[in-house]
Structure formats: C-alpha cells, structure tokens
Design a protein that fits this description.
The complex is a heterodimer. Chain A is α/β, with parallel strands linked by helices. Chain A has three domains: 75 residues, Ubiquitin-like (UB roll) (Roll); 111 residues, Alpha-Beta Plaits, CATH 3.30.70.20; 350 residues, Rossmann fold (3-Layer(aba) Sandwich). In chain A, the strands form five sheets. Chain A has a five-stranded mixed β-sheet with strand order 2-1-5-3-4, sandwiched between helices. Chain A has a four-stranded parallel β-sheet with strand order 12-11-14-15, with helices on both faces. A four-stranded mixed β-sheet of chain A has the order 13-18-17-16, sandwiched between helices. In chain A, helix 8 crosses helix 14. The longest helix of chain A has 22 residues. Chain A is globular, with a radius of gyration of 24 Å. The two termini of chain A are 48 Å apart. Chain B is built from 13 helices and nine strands. Chain B folds into three domains: 172 residues, Rossmann fold, CATH 3.40.50.11540; 71 residues, Ubiquitin-like (UB roll); 79 residues, Up-down Bundle (de novo design (two linked rop proteins)). Chain B is α/β, with parallel strands linked by helices. Classes of the chains: A alpha/beta, B alpha/beta.
C-alpha cells in the first residue's frame, strides 16, 4: 500500500500537517477552517466553476480555488483577506444575477446556501439585472420541477444525471451562453430519482410540492387524514431542525404529524415488513421454478421507471411485490378502514418519503384498489420539514409519542429498508427461515451493508446457493445489466436503489446530502434495527395479525400486495 | 539506436540553447515541454500543432501555412522523431483547413500526422480545450494539473506547440534561427502584413522599419486584437508580447467604447461559459457597453474577479485590454 506523504503547510498563519494529494478544501475541512463553497459537491467531480472558494497562496498572483488546488509542501494559504472578500462578493453578486430570487415561494428559504452566503458577505443580490428572467420552468412528470431562471450553470445536475446513466438533463449551447435543458431525445427521459435536486446548490430543481393538497383535508370536515412515514425519514428529518446527522426521531416525528393535524400516524416500516414477506415468498417460488431469475427488487420507483423505459426486457425480472408505502396505504384503505368502520373514500393517505419518484409511483393506475389510490399524496422529507416550520412545529423540542396501532410498529428489518442492502437483508432474514425452518444463525448480513456502489455476496438457503448483488445508483445498475448480458445467471437476486446509498440518500432528503451524511443516516437505521426485539418481518405481530384477519385469500393479497409493470414511452 | 538518442538530445539541447519560448502567447520554454513529454513514461504519446489562431489581428500562423508549410511540417517531423511512439495532429482553424488542406495532405503523406478541422470559438485554441475538442467533448478547459505533458490527449503525454514554434524548431535544427519572431502589423497602417524581425526590437522600431509609423495621433494594441494591451505612442519602446500582433488605431477616429464593446462581444462569443467571472463578468461588461452606461467602479470590480479568479488564462487575459483602455483612453471622459 502506498503510504500518503505528510507535508507541512500553513493556513492563515497556522502551521498544519496535511497529506500529499489533498485539496486545500479537504485540509481546511479537516481542521474546521471554513471556506465558503457553492458548486463543490463531494459526490461529483471537481468543476471549480463558481469561484467562491478562492483563496490566496503566497507567491501566486491569481487566487486559487480551494476545491481543486492540491496542497504542496510549504504552501502558505490565506483564506480571509480584504481582496478575497472582495472577489467572493463580486462573484456572488454575479451568481445572484443569474438566479432569479423567488425566495418567498422557495422551500429552501430557511436553509438556502446561496442566501446564507449573500447574508454572510452582505452582498447586493440585485446589483445586476436578472439575466434569466425569461427562462422557463419545466416539470418532469408529477415529481420534479426545474426552474431554469434559478439555475447558476454549475452543471452538477447534468453530471449526476449522466452518472445515473439517464442523461436527461443536458447542456444546450444557445447564442453566446449555454442553458441546462431537458433532453428532447426520444431515447431519454427522467426517472424522477431527484438526484439532480439534492445536488443543486440553489434550489433550481425541486420536488413538486403538494402543500395545499395536503393542508386542505387537515381542516376539512369529514376527512380522515392518515400520515405514514418511510424508514429513512426518521434518521434524516432531524437535520432540518438542527439535530446531529443520524438522529432517529421516530416518535418526535409522530408527535409533530399529529400536531399538524394527522388523525392517525403509521410507520411505512410496517409496510416494508409486508413487502419483505411477499418478496421472500416470490423469491423462493422463482428459485423453485427457476423462472424469471435473477429477481430484481422493485420497491424503488425510479429504478422501476429506469427498467420500464430503458430496459423493458427486464420487466419479468422485477419482483411483483408492491413497495412498502403502497402496501401500507392499501391496508389503511381496506383492512384498517374495515376495522375502524371508516369509509375508505374519506381517507386521505399522505406518505412522508425520502423520494421524489414516489410522487410518480402513487399515480400509477394499476395500483388502485376498488378505484382508490392507496396513497393520495407524497411529501418529501424536505417538504414536510418546510411544512412543520411553516406551522411553527419544532421537531427538536416536541415531546415524543408512539405511532398508532395496528400499523405503527415495525420490525428491525423494516427499518433498514432505508439503506442500500436493507431490502436484500430483510428478505434473506425471512426467506432463510421460511425455507429451512431453522433459526438464522446470524441475523446481520454485513456483506450487503455499506455505501459501496456495488456489493456482492453469496448465501446458502436450503439447497440453493444464492448469488446476490446490491447496487445503488442506476448507472451502477447498468453495469450489472451489462454483466447479465454475457452471463444471465450470474446472480439470483439483485437489489437496486436508484439513489446513492439507497433511500437515506434519496432525492427527497435534506440538503446537503453527501457520503458522510449518508453514512450517519444509514448507521442510525442499523442501530435502530439492532435495538429492536423483533428483527424479522414475518415475526412482526402486526404483520401476523393482518395476515390472520385480512390478508387471508390469494385475491386479497394480490389486490393489496402485488402489482404489474409495463414498458414506458417518453413522457417529458 | 544510439544515434537517434543523440540526435534527440541534441535538438532539445539546441532548443535550450536558443532559448525558444512558445509562440502561442504564453511564452513557455519550448525545451522544457519537449523534455517533459519525451521523458514521460507511456506507450503512446501525442503531438499537437496548434493552428487555431483565434484572436483578431493575428495572422502569423496563416502566414507560415501559406509560405513555409515545409518548414512547419519539418518541425513536426523533428518532434515525431524526438518523442517515441508518437503521432501528431495538425489542429487547424476552419478557414486554414479549407485553404491549406490539399497542400498539407501532400506534405504529410506517409507521416503519422492527422489534419484536424477545429470547430468552435476562441477558447478552442486553449491547450486543454484543444484536447477536449479532438476528443469530441464540450469545448472548455480542464483542470491543470495534470498538464498535457503528463496526461493530455486521451490521457497520454501530449506536446502542444503553436505553428510558429514548430516553424522555429525546424530552423533551430538547421542552425538557421536568428532570434526572430513574426509580427502581424495591421490596423491603420500603410504597409500591413506579417514581418519576420528580431525578437527584441521595440514596437516603435518595428513600426518604423516596416514604414508603418503613423503620421497622426494614434495608439496601439499590442499582442493580440482582443487581449492585447493598449499602448500609447510614448510607450512603444518595449518589445512585443503575446502573439505578436501590432494593431494601430487612429486616436481621433476611434471610439474607445466601441472598441471595448467589440472585445467584450468577442470574449463573450469566444469563452466557454464554465466559470462565473468569465461567463457572467464578460456578459455584464458587454451589457454595460451595449447600454452605453459605463460604470468604472463596476468594470474595475469585474476586471478584478476576471484577473484573480478566472478558471483559465483566457478569462485572466481579458483584463489587460479592458484595464489599459479604461486607464489610458477613458480617463478624461468618464472619470
């Protein structure tokens, strides 16, 4: 192994030890020295285009961007000086001149990187006229909006879209300037993953807010509003209220939703337990019949759309099990409605999701049960935080309350759905016991955990030696799909999540989202799992009860828990 | 084998002894670039002759392509012989490609030299952008390091030199280089054209010796017709920098704001729009000149970020022209 060389540098006259190969920004971060940044995102290549992070290096005439300049032995760096301040101010004013301020309508208003920099440097945000005032706003499906009049041309979205192998957002040269635009090619379409949203430094890309639609039934007579929140939301939403990364706030979140006006609050982790039971069942059936293998997970709607649009040939390989919040929404409008004698038509189900693609998923016609959509609205983690702040509900101080019975208490397996590898691990925890009848010797499948883009593992279940792959990022999924072309049976079971690190890095999650933050959010979910007494989906008493009392026939199971997929045309 | 190595050494020695500096504008010692690429360890290497000549008022590369193409190709041949496993590209601006293609094809027959027709604007003459253009990527500069000599075209060590540089490499090899350079003299002059004259001649002498010293009140843009510095007659005792253009303007007949607008539009069209100061700063300067409301303080601010924070030399280079013009020609009118 190559040992990195230690070097000596100084930042603002302080002598520091750094490693060869580090950038100035990395060293500054490590020592807690703050350098303002905007276009820099650790998930992406260094573009060094916003020029806000420029610093002075002794002996160099021009300033150097901290994000891209590597430290050298003896380098003397200044991060604050009147000249630097002047340069940052002017560059920020120029950036603001291409970002039409629509702050009062922007959900980033409480947490806007650009606005914070503007305040910090006391710049005149309207020194120049907005040059993008006539630029259009695009909407991609029911999921994402792109207000190109806010775009600052950093191209992070274009890069991340390419990294996803979607290549829907692209640069178009127009006159003497370029614009970021959605592709008009018939071969390309948005999969609604929302990675562009979490990598946009200025909120030009956002989820389609459904605030009014969610707020209205809260005060309307005769509506029963049921909120359900996804596994990963509990370990991320606290960030929006100043809690440390990886703080699990399940019960505070429940209390906050009740305060907002929810009649019931359920946990999508329970939905995940149902998904696990059905998916494990389907896996075992396919292994038995040796048909439609490898089986791919399908609880990520962006991945499903990726398959339906780019790889319809893989549709038979997707598990037909519905995603957790769709199953739970369906159970709320059938099982729970019956139990509570509530008219299903009067129920409004709102899912709090880490995801923008879930807004698209709920509109899929084939999911309807007796003509009703299982879920009526989806709010992203960010959107809920915005709504809570707007209603002056402080998650940080609110006393915790447990979610409601009978769909509010998840197994540990349901919680880890929020991290890449979690669906696979949950399914294995159940499939192993279902097939062998033996107790799992070890409940944790460490091999499929972690943020690596592609994880591979092998496990023996009964007479089957299963070859497994866990992938996050559709670009990485494409690599696996290509592998399958040469060896179709290389894997038996493949989990794909469109977002980096799985749902904890989802397109609906708080900004910033990066590897460090994703790690903290995932770790918190695994800790929450470890703390649970019941850690296998099929052992969750609420699940067992529902199968005994409601999901008693094949028809009912199929109606609530299973779905179909179809090849898709370009819609955007 | 030994002979080849000795020959290779001797050309680099000769380049060093001649003190030849790159003639594309950046004036980097040629022998250092050659040594870096020669010594880089790689199974493939590239040589690029840059004939993009994108700045107004500069015609020297075209002059060589027209009058001394054999000398240029000989310079490239020397580079191919000096650098192991190398292939070359001759990167020509559209007009030059059209005009000289036939003759160059004849001259490069049997040699590993590919003629490449450049597309795009001024920025596509910047060395890392040249590489991006040949690779078919968006035309914009990339981060340095790695420098092209380390990882250039398709990741291989790459030597990029200007047409005039290769022309003089050929002369140096033949021991017929006498510390000259090419001057593109144009504008309001009697005898405009490209002249080969000693390197160290003051601009004044170049104008006088070529019978171009104006008989009227004038100023000069020296280097290139967009990024070159504005010099007043009393400042012409210095030798030329940049790409060697000397453009003469009639002081009374030239509206400095119109001239500055011309540059601003040239840079706005010619830049890549990657970094904020160059994309937005140049846009705002052009906007201001368009509306004829010139705020010296704002121009000064924009020049400051262009100079101090631009991504590539193009952005930094815009400042010299803007600043020298505002300082020297606008002082009475607009202060």
């Amino acid at each position: 192994m190559n040992k990195k060389n230690r070097i000596e540098i100084s930042i603002d006259q302080k002598k520091l030890t750094a490693f060869e190969g580090q950038t100035i920004l990395e060293v500054a971060d490590a020592y807690g020295i703050e350098i303002p940044t905007l276009c820099s995102h650790p998930d992406l290549t260094i573009k060094a285009s916003c020029r806000v992070c420029c610093v002075e290096i002794l002996g160099k005439e021009a300033f150097a961007p901290a994000c891209s300049t590597k430290v050298e032995n003896g380098m003397e760096i200044i991060t604050l000086s009147p000249d630097l301040r002047r340069a940052r101010e002017i560059n920020l004013e120029l950036i603001f001149a291409q970002h039409c301020q629509k702050c009062p309508d922007c959900i980033w208003q409480f947490n806007c990187q650009l606005l914070n920099l503007a305040r910090k440097f006391e710049i005149r945000i309207n020194k120049f006229t907005d040059r993008k005032i006539a630029y259009p706003t695009y909407q991609f499906g029911p999921a994402i909006t792109f207000d190109s009049s806010k775009c600052i041309d950093c191209r992070n979205c274009v890069e991340v879209c390419e990294k996803q192998n979607v290549k829907f957002l692209e640069v178009k040269e127009r006159g003497h300037l370029f614009q970021v635009v959605p592709s008009r090619s018939e071969e390309r379409d948005c999969i609604y993953c929302g990675q562009c949203v979490v990598h946009c430094p200025v909120g030009a890309l956002e989820a389609v807010g459904e605030f009014e639609e969610v707020e209205k039934p809260l005060w309307e007579q005769g509506k029963t509003v049921v909120f359900q929140f996804a596994p990963s939301v509990r370990s991320s939403i606290g960030e929006e209220f100043g809690l440390p990364y990886g703080t699990v706030v399940t019960e505070k979140l429940t209390a906050a939703l009740r305060k907002l006006g929810a009649d019931r609050v359920f946990d999508v982790g329970v939905g995940a337990d149902f998904t696990t039971v059905e998916e494990a069942k389907e896996l075992l059936e396919r292994l038995e019949s040796q048909k439609n293998l490898p089986m791919f997970t399908s609880c990520c709607p962006a991945w499903v759309r990726y398959v339906e649009f780019f790889h319809p040939e893989l549709i038979p390989n997707l598990t037909t099990t519905r995603s957790p919040h769709i199953i739970l929404g369906g159970l709320i409008k059938t099982y729970w409605a019956e139990k509570e004698s509530v008219d299903p038509e009067k129920i409004v189900v709102v899912s709090i999701m880490p995801c923008t693609a879930k807004k698209y998923e709920i509109k899929r016609e084939e999911l309807k049960i007796n003509g009703l959509r299982p879920v009526d609205h989806v709010l992203t983690t960010r959107e809920l935080a915005y709504l809570l702040i707007k209603h002056k509900i402080d998650l940080k101080t609110i006393p915790p309350e447990p979610p409601d019975y009978p769909l509010g208490s998840s197994s540990g397996a349901g919680l880890i759905y929020g991290a890449s590898g979690g669906v696979m691990e949950s399914a294995l925890r159940t499939a192993f016991e279902k097939l062998t009848g033996r107790k799992l010797p070890r409940i944790e499948f460490e091999e499929v955990r972690g943020l690596q883009e592609v994880k591979k593992a092998s496990i023996k279940i009964g007479q089957h030696q299963l070859s497994l792959a866990v992938v996050n990022g559709t670009g990485n999924a494409e690599t696996i799909i290509n592998q399958l072309k040469s060896n179709p049976r290389e894997y038996d079971y493949i989990e794909v999540m469109a977002c980096f690190g799985g749902c904890i890095g989802g397109g609906g999650q708080p900004v910033p989202t990066n590897a460090k933050i994703r790690r903290a959010r995932a770790k918190a979910l695994y800790q929450a799992d470890a703390a649970k007494e019941i850690r296998q989906a099929h052992k969750n008493p609420e699940v067992v009860e529902a199968y005994q009392k409601y999901l008693t026939t094949k028809e009912k199971i199929s109606q609530v828990c299973l779905t179909k997929f179809f090849p898709k045309e370009k819609e955007n | 084998m030994i002979l080849v190595t000795m020959a290779a050494q001797s050309i680099i020695e000769k380049l060093k002894a001649s003190n030849l500096l790159g003639r594309g504008g950046a004036a980097y010692p040629t022998w250092q670039k050659w040594t870096a690429v020669k010594e880089a360890k790689a199974d493939k290497k590239y040589i690029i002759c840059n004939a993009s000549e994108g700045e107004p008022g500069v015609y020297k590369d075209g002059f060589i392509l027209e009058n001394y193409p054999e000398e240029l190709i000989n310079g490239l041949k020397i580079a191919l012989e000096t650098i192991d496993h190398s292939r070359a590209y001759l990167y020509l601006r559209h007009g030059y490609y059209q005009r000289f293609k036939k003759n160059l094809e004849k001259l490069t027959r049997g040699l590993p030299i590919t003629l490449f027709e450049k597309s795009g604007h001024y920025i596509s003459g910047e060395e890392t952008t040249v590489i991006a253009t040949i690779e078919g990527k968006r035309q914009e500069p990339s981060l340095k390091p790695p420098f092209p000599t380390q990882a250039g075209l398709w990741g291989y060590p790459t030597l990029i030199n200007n047409v005039e540089t290769f022309y003089y490499v050929s002369k140096i090899e033949k021991d017929s280089y006498h510390q000259t350079r090419l001057y593109s003299v144009n504008g309001e002059v009697e005898n405009g054209g490209v002249y080969e004259l000693p390197l160290n001649w003051p601009i004044e002498k170049v104008l006088k010796e070529t019978k171009n010293w104006p008989g009227f009140d004038f100023f000069v843009q020296a280097g290139g017709g967009a990024a070159g510095e504005i010099l007043l007659p009393e400042e012409l005792g210095q030798p030329i920098a940049g790409a060697g253009a000397i453009i003469v303007y009639h002081r009374q007949k030239t509206n400095p704001l119109t001239l500055m607008k011309k540059w601003a539009i040239f840079f706005m069209d010619g830049n890549c729009d990657k970094c904020v100061p160059c994309r937005e700063g140049v846009f705002r300067i052009a906007e201001m000149l368009e509306s004829e409301k010139v705020d010296r303080k704002i121009i000064d601010d924009l020049c400051f970020v262009l100079e101090k924070t631009s991504f590539c030399p193009l952005g930094r280079s815009t400042v010299i022209a803007f600043r020298s013009l505002t300082n020297k020609l606008l002082s009475c009118q607009y202060e």
